[in-house]
Design goal:
Helix content: 25-40%
Distance between the termini: 123 Å
Shape: rod-shaped
Structural class: alpha+beta
Number of helices: 9
Strand content: 5-15%
Length: 397
């Protein structure tokens, strides 16, 4: 085959031979050579055919069927892909968050199961009712029964009186209310009023003053006592300097060793009454009688301690104010006629002049408590002094 100068196909040899024969015979025409434009069109069509064939071969490996030349639609375009990816990621994040919350909830229940149990058993509701209960009115006469049973909830650092009838008792000094002063037993109204104030001050210093509670000398209380009670005053001084079973300062003063115990908060719950009667010695004497219970929440003084324990101290005493012209007495001073105390939740075998409530971490020592359980909140019964010689069992604290 011949070729032309433009690189296109020339006239075939067979066609040229035929042309020569016909020319020699005087017939025929020479084959027409394609024009340059025809050759360009032919070449362009050939290249397009090759491109289409190559494209068809390339698509076969990725997808079947004819190629679809359609614009990006709402199902195939980038917007749809981004939307699907966003929703999927959002769902995954939501599920991950819910899983974390669920696992954290399980962990919290494992550490503090009471959060769920309290709701199921009604403790949470009972706790809310107790927390919002109104304070009890002042005690005017001795109660006839013990306080109603309450849910035995454990005290906490924030709520040290939780689970105790003392939740509704007065706070500190507010619980020591004075009766109206009247002339009694030949003593004037003014002398009776002075005696009532002195007795209240004695109780406050002896049982509520922070200095006394941490074991310091209750000097102000001692000054209120009649100096003519020489034997009693000497015994009190000895009990404060060298405590023992025979000379125990806890008989009149509430004390805790600050190296061992720390009060929880600054509130001591108080309930009781004070009243005046004619003196047993006759005209010219009046007796001021008291019956009060004090509830003390403590925690171990060791750093990080959280367990709260309560000690309940009940004090029953009789003070006398008398006319010094008729009886041995000093004007403006108190004569301590008799006194008793009952302490619940304190070690029976330790006589160092301090309270020692029992905590879970404490080793079991000393005598084993015996007898029928006694409710330390039961103020319906009197004290006869026998409680001091026993190591009994308390029903609650």
């Amino acid at each position: 085959m011949t070729s032309n100068d433009a690189g296109g196909p020339g006239v075939p040899d067979e066609e040229w031979a035929r042309f020569v024969r016909e020319a020699e015979q005087g017939a025929g025409q020479a084959p027409a050579e394609p024009s340059a434009r025809a050759r360009m069109v032919t070449e362009r069509l050939r290249r397009e055919d090759e491109q289409r064939a190559g494209a068809a071969r390339g698509r076969f490996g990725r997808r079947s069927g004819p190629a679809r030349h359609e614009p990006p639609g709402w199902r195939t375009g980038p917007a749809w892909q981004d939307m699907r990816g966003g929703r999927g990621a959002g769902r995954r994040r939501l599920k991950a968050t819910l899983a974390v919350v669920f696992i954290a909830g399980l962990g919290l229940v494992a550490v503090r199961p009471e959060l769920v149990i309290d709701r199921i058993t009604g403790k949470a509701e009972a706790r809310s009712v107790a927390r919002t209960a109104a304070p009890l009115p002042a005690e005017s006469v001795r109660p006839t029964t013990a306080p109603e049973a309450v849910d035995p909830d454990r005290p906490t650092l924030k709520e040290p009186f939780r689970g105790s009838p003392a939740v509704q008792w007065a706070d500190g000094v507010a619980g020591i209310e004075l009766p109206a002063a009247e002339a009694v037993g030949g003593m004037s109204k003014e002398r009776v009023a002075e005696g009532l104030e002195n007795v209240k001050r004695f109780l406050v210093v002896s049982n509520l003053d922070p200095a006394t509670l941490r074991g310091e000398r209750p000097s102000e209380a001692l000054k209120l006592l009649d100096p003519k009670m020489k034997e009693l005053n000497a015994g009190l001084e000895k009990s404060l300097s060298t405590p023992s079973r025979e000379n125990d300062p806890l008989s009149l003063f509430t004390r805790a060793d600050p190296a061992e115990l720390k009060p929880v908060g600054d509130v001591v719950k108080v309930r009781g009454r004070m009243w005046v009667e004619p003196g047993r010695k006759g005209p010219g004497e009046a007796e001021i009688r008291v019956d009060f219970s004090f509830v003390y929440p403590f925690v171990k003084a060791k750093a990080g301690s959280t367990q709260v324990e309560r000690t309940i101290v009940r004090r029953v005493a009789t003070f006398s104010i008398a006319d010094p012209r008729k009886f041995e007495a000093t004007t403006g001073k108190l004569w301590l006629v008799e006194y008793n105390r009952d302490i619940a939740n304190s070690a029976c075998d330790v006589d160092d002049g301090y309270l020692h409530p029992t905590f879970d971490m404490d080793p079991v020592t000393g005598p084993t408590p015996s007898g029928a359980p006694v409710d330390p909140y039961d103020r319906s019964k009197g004290l006869d002094g026998s409680e001091q010689e026993e190591c009994g069992v308390v029903s609650r604290s």
